[in-house]
TrEMBL record:
Residues 282-383 form the TF-B3 domain. This is Anaphase-promoting complex subunit 4. The chain holds residues 760 to 1569 of 1571 of the full protein. Residues 628-649 are annotated as: Disordered. It comes from Dorcoceras hygrometricum. Its main location: nucleus.
Amino acid sequence: HSVMAPLAVSASRGVACVFAAKKRALVYILEEDEDELTDTDSAYEEGKFCDAFHSSTSGWRCCESCGKTPNPAWPPPSQVGPSQLEKTEDFSWNTSSSFVGSGPVPWRIAPSLFKESNIQSDAHTKIPFEIDVSGGIDLFGTSERLLAGSPEKKQEFSDERCFNGKFRVGPFDALQNGHAALNPKDQPLPSINIQSTILPKNDSSNFSVITASSSKTELDDTSQLSANFSTSQTLSVPVGKQVGTHYRMDGETQVRNGKVLGDSRGRNQLLPRSKSVITPLFEKTLSASDAGRIGRLVLPKKCAEAYFPPIAQPEGVPLEVLDVKGKEWVFQFRFWPNNNSRMYVLEGITPCIQSLKLQAGDVVTFSRLEPGGKLVMGGRKSSSVPSSDQGDGAVIKGSNSLIPESCQAKNKCVEGIPVIGYMKGKSPSFFQPISHVSKADIGSISSEIHETKPPYNSKGNGSILFSKCKRPRTENDIALNLSMDEAQGLIRPAAKIVASVFVVEGCEIEEFEDTAPVIGRPTIPATDAFGKQMQWVQCEDCFKWRKVPQDALLPSEWICSENVWDLDRSRCSDAEELAVGKLQVILPAIKKDSSKRREITTKDAEMFATQERHDTRVNLAIQADDEGISASADSRSNHPSEKSPKHKQSCDCAICSSLKHRFRTLMDKYVKQQLEEVGESISQKLNQQQLPEQVHNVETQAVPDTGNITSTWGEERKIVCLDYHNMQKSSSSPLKGQIDLNIQPEREEDVSPVSESGTGKQLHPHATEKLFMQQMPSGSGIGNLASTRILQDGIGANLLSCLTVDGGIQ
DNA sequence: ACTCTGCATGGTC
DNA sequence: TGACCATGCAGAG
């Protein structure tokens, strides 16, 4: 440890620490809220590096024993031409002066997905995209879709990307001999956690770059894109049928227009037939000069230094590049001295640009194809990516015209998180994490160009959230940033639709094909006397509980009249199937007398305010997704209703439905988790007290002969579900457990009871928990969960009641 | 006169 | 204020 001295620290957002030893260095950017990494211990403890810390060996190095090695940003010496090797000598990472150039690259992830998982990419994690494509390389983004890194964990497909040559590296610019060192690990908001690292690989100054790729990729029906992570997690997505896909991956960094391309989605513009790994590097919007006849493409300095071979002489080196068509080009990669700096250019690109039919305003992308380490150059027509690079700017669907000039001119404000998923065709991307998703992103998505926006801000702003775009971020922007992850959690597949689940970086990704997710009224799964699966649902109007088929997908405002399965109970005036007493045993949370709903307390008001904020975000997310760019523009500053149609409670649009359904799923999971804890406590209690008979009692009471609660989730879960329902009802919300899709953002801070009372809706899991806790008597000594109470009160018949009550704990 | 090359300038961040 | 980069421009070919 002693040899590892911090070379640089402190960044406006986050802390960058550089450790160098024996010509090896590592830049590590800490998350904003993380404690400053001041020693290697912490890094090691966080599992950033080797699985085993080699205390006997100084410096970070290619760890043979762990198999973790720096990720070469550029092909190893063997793959680099002689001239390049020559140059590398000039750029050796010498001891403490190792870094020059880029500083921390801001990484952001889709909030929710990884928020829970708290995924932290291993600094050495490589997230190239293993692509198996049969459609050839798509350079124009007409068929692009990216999978990327931080599923959010930073995201957000990871996120530091370089667009137009600018890394989002914060104040920390570590350059050595003109080579940028990137190491983004920035996850300000709940989002995809992406880390990018450039490590000096050896004395010959080859450096490694771990890039999080994020790009959008739209694949043809036969294409397959898979992201192969060094962590052995793989993502295989049948692109052609991806309707809604949750990607949760940690990504690496890429640069796009100076921004590292590193989202959770890897742009697979390059689609070789054979399985190859493509690591998106960066992209740049062609300027007039770039696209001019001169044939010189100005390369973003940091990108050039990070991903192109190091050059010591202005003459540079010839660079072989493949285009999407597989054609090989040779450009001269060189630089001009400029203000004591360098201006990197690719010369001789005109033929290639023309071949790709690119022009000023279009985007040229650079990726690296493995094996071989060849550079692949792609392009994307600007027309296909409306305002894509302008990110935060006001954007109108399909048009760049509304992009703030400041953003357009410099391709700044490129922000947003790579679209996590997308809806084929014109469907909005349900799963795009609103967080960090710029309006432009939304716009591009809605326009069938599922473009991934590098969150990277050209000028090294370092944070998507703090884009240098002149337009001040509005409250709605923030809401968007916070809501998509949550919104994602609300989406669930339609009835009978089984999502394909695959795991990426330990995160489950649900993929739905061809069927938009839906939202249904919460129900309580159960089994009837014949052992048949069914579910209980409460009428929206009379609050009576009815049995419906297990596969029944009910609208959020389901009422008795819609009970087509039991016409004898298709009216609110019809009696319930179960006697009150029995029903209460089964559904203890039921409170049939709405008049007895407890009054809203201050705490409740706060709780509801939280809900409202949450829902507002969801609402915004919905709008953004649903209405594309125009919606985004609306949501930015105005209440949805002011410029766009409201989503009614009964709205059955795909987005609303999806969110509602997803919410239910999420709720189930949450409840299950909580109940597992409760159950665990109970089990412990039982073991301690040795009261098996009480357990029996519980089961007996919870499983009446009629309407037995299904064992699908276990008893605990059932109980919580009931409580959940009860809480909903007890919210005194006129909306009764529905998501208010039209909450005004302006009211986010409005915590008045009046406000709350009018915005009752389904609770976000966390909100539910909060409410749950708030409902517990403060002096009851109840801990975080009812389990505590259960332990205190014992188990058995008290179990159910202790968890449910008129909105509180009995 | 035109193109290419290298550098300088100025705007933006 | 400095870095970056788009573009202009002058000199050379």
